[in-house]
Amino acid sequence: MHHNEFYKPTNTGRLIADSVADTRIFEWSRTEPPQELLDALNDPRYAPCIVFPAGDDYQNRMIDAPVEYSRIPVFIILDGTWRQARRMFRHSRYLQHLPVIEPRTQRLSRYSLRRSTVEHHLCTAEVAIALLEQFNEQRAAAHLERYFDLFNGEYFESRRKWDRSPE
User: Fold this and answer.
1) For a disulfide at 79, which of 1, 3, 134, 143, Cβ 3.0-4.6 Å?
2) Which letter, b or e, does each residue of 129-148 get, where b requires 16 or more Cβ atoms within 10 Å of its Cβ?
3) Where does the DTW domain lie (predicted)?
């Protein structure tokens, strides 16, 4: 998670941690990653991959699914604005050896609290929902989607009330 996201009330990455078991959050650092993250990336029990849109300059790293079925798949979702996520993806040397997976989805973002200039960009929770659906974790996807919808609606409504309140 980008350090700017930790305290933003509009952050959806924490919804994943609240509703998907075994989710871990690490604060991103370009040059000093948390040792716990490095240990997890090197743990032979896990098959980590980065969740990110496909790109020509790293096409050789793209996969459709984790390839080592004897290991537990781990999906690293970069939590930040799109600009921050691109920076995290491109400038984290300790992630450059990992395969990259792009969620296969036709979803358009329903996130109304922050807007991307690109229609197909999803917020962090929507990326997780799409990935869970892709790997047939329908119950978890539905649970996270309900939580996301509730969060989105309640937060939007609270902003409307704040905007209408007299000074």
Assistant:
1) 1
2) bbbbbbeebeebbeebbebb
3) 1-160
